[in-house]
Amino acid sequence: MSDAPRPRDIVLIVDDSPETLGFLTDALEQSGFSVLIATSGPAALKVVARITPDIVLMDAVMPEMDGFDTCRRLKALADIAPVPVIFMTGLTETEHIVHALESGGVDYLSKPINIDELRARIRVHLGNARSAQSARVALDAAGRHLLAVRGNGALHWSTPQATRLVDTAIGSEDGLDAVSDQIALFLRDRTSGKDAPLVIESAGVPVLQLAFLGTVGSDEYLFRLTAVSQTTDEEALRRHFSLTMREAEVLVWIAKGKSNRDIAEILGLSARTVNKHLEQIYVKLGVENRASAAVKATNALSQS
Description:
alpha/beta; 3 domains; 304 residues; Beta-Lactamase; 12 helices
C-alpha cells in the first residue's frame, strides 16, 4: 500500500509584473509547490481571506499599496502573522532592506531572482515556520498561558489558554487589544536587569500579572500570564467557611459570576477539578447550587 501523497506547500506570489508572476509560477510549480498569485496588495489581502498560504513572496515596489504596507497588513491578521514573507526587490540600499525586515519580512532577494537561491530560502523558512508552529502547538497542548508581542506591544502570537485568561479577566473579547499599550510601555521602560511583573488592572483592581520571560527573536518578547490572586477575599472566605485555599479561590470567582470554564482557565485547573471543589463548597456552605453559594460568599465578603 503506497503512502498518501504529501500536500503541496502553498506559495502566494504578490507582484504587479506579469512577467515575474509567470516566471516564478512556472519555476515553483515545477519544484512541487502550489502557487497563488496576486497583482496588488489589496488583491493579496483578498486571497488570504480565503486561503492561508505557507509562505509569501512579496514584491517591494507596487502601485496603490507597496509591499511594505501590504506585509504589515498581513502580519496584523492573526491567522497570517506566523506565515513567513520573503521580499523580492530591486532596491538594494540598506534602508530598503531594513524597511522590509521591519515591516515583518523574514528575508529578501534581489531581482533578477535566481530560482535555485529562491527555492533554497523558501525551504529554510518553511522549516523554521513549522518548527515555531510545532512549539506553539506543544505549548497549547500543555495548557501554558503564554503570549509573545512585538516591541510596540502588538500581539505576535498567543496560546488559546492565554487569550481566554486575558479576555475573562478584562471582561472583553478584545482583552489582548486592551492591554497592548500597557505592554508596550512596559517594554519601553524596562531595564536590562530583573524585571518586576507587569500588573494589569480592570476597573482599578489588579486582575492579571505578566512575567517577562525573555526575547525569542529580534522583535519577539515572551510573557507568562497568571491571574492576580484575590488574597484578601480568599482568606476571608477560607476562614469564614472553613474552606481549603483552593476552594476559597473557586468561591471567589463564583461570587464574581464566572462560569466553571472561566474559573478553570483562570486558576489553571480542569473543569472536572472545579466541579469537585464545588461539591465540597456546597457541603461546607450548606447550599445546593452555585447561585446560593454566590449569595453566601458575597454576604460574607461584605461583612469582612
